Amino acid sequence: MREAIDAIDDRIHDLLMERIERVLEVGHLKSVQGNVSPDPSFYRPEREASIHRRLEARHRGPLPKAALHRIYREIISASLSLEKRLTVAYLGPEHAFAHLAALKQFGSSCHLRPTVSIDELFHEVEVNRADFGVAPVENSNEGMISHTLDRFVDSPLSIRGEIYVEVSYAVFSGVGSTGAVRLLLGTRLAMTRCRGWIERHMPGAPQRVVESMAEALRVAREESGVAIVAPMALAEVLGCEILAEHIEDRAEEIRFLVIGRGEPTRSGRDKTSLMFTFRDQPGFLHQVLGIFAKRQINLTRIESRPSGRQAWEYLFFLDLSGHLGDPPVAGAMEELAQMPGVTARILGSYPVRAL
Asked: What does the pLDDT read at residue 193?
């Protein structure tokens, strides 16, 4: 049986090398055609989305689908790095949910750069110090993250993709049981989101709030009997036993946007985001939304924000199903642009999350 597994590994390795050769051929063709860095064609989110969707559709197990996606994420990431090693900025610190989102989308073969603010994140991409950025835009419990939306007003960047990360926590430790824990560590956010579970299951454990996961890891290495409240996705990084999982008080998910330059082509399942403003008069918003309704375009989200230019002027942010290359969406945007008093901008057409 072991010899058979070794033979399968050899075949997998041969196929991986064959795949890499094809990737290098594609990279050569791009260079011949003049598509060189920092051209965003090196990263094609619609192509990656189609790969993941196709593999999931043909997958029959017993390997979990999530594991299949992780394997191919790393294969794609390593392959892409042979063409160009991408630099991806994210809202730090390391091991925060934005870091996990960047890893989920780009894999571990890219260079991940933490930033201290959303403004810095956008700036790093705008001045080409990063190829892409990963910015939080929505929390399933708390709604839209307004600063990310506001930043699009004056930025030339567009949306290249979206990532969803489950906000799920666990207690990690090497002590064997929650009763043996002498000190419970976690960031302020982690301890807050898991307060109910901690009060019910570990009421007597001393607690300490740390500034970062890096500090929690340092303390755990230096002291005995320490447990850490951390995202479940960090299991491999922490290297500790999981004493309890899914300890968050409420199910939660964070949506992130991949920001960059360029426009992905159609993947087959796409979303378009835009922002617009219009004259303040009765019924005007109804007229705008009617443009999409008569074409049976599904609007998945609409959000309003003060424009910041003058008092009581508002910007509207809208997500809809479909790609700008789809005739109904293209027709709607053309009609919207021709409406007097309307100023509209496409923020991006990009694949609906594939994993």
From this structure: 92
